[in-house]
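cron nightly-structures :: item 1 of 1
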Amino acid sequence: IYATSKSCIGITATPLNKGEDLKPWHSKFGGLPYIPKGMDYPKDTQGNPLHLLAQINFADFPTVMEPFPRDGLLQFYIIEDDLYGMMNDKYKVIYIPYEGHY
């Protein structure tokens, strides 16, 4: 087990504080994703829109973990079916580099 172990960072979901504003580029579970201008909303092969499962902003990480970038968004999209897209083509993982978009 130790020979194949990898470094990781734990993610703890916390509710927003009263009056706190959640921006489209913040890390989150569910909700509305950040979509840069010119990028189409993610869809499955039949053209159905996918749902945001999670969005991770690498700028939120306390330290840099190789090989992950220092900034940018990693988004996980799924379709709502019995297996949430796990056994077919109804999911997408997208990386959006920072490049001053947000």
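cron nightly-structures :: done
Strands lie at 28-29, 51-57, 73-78, 91-96.
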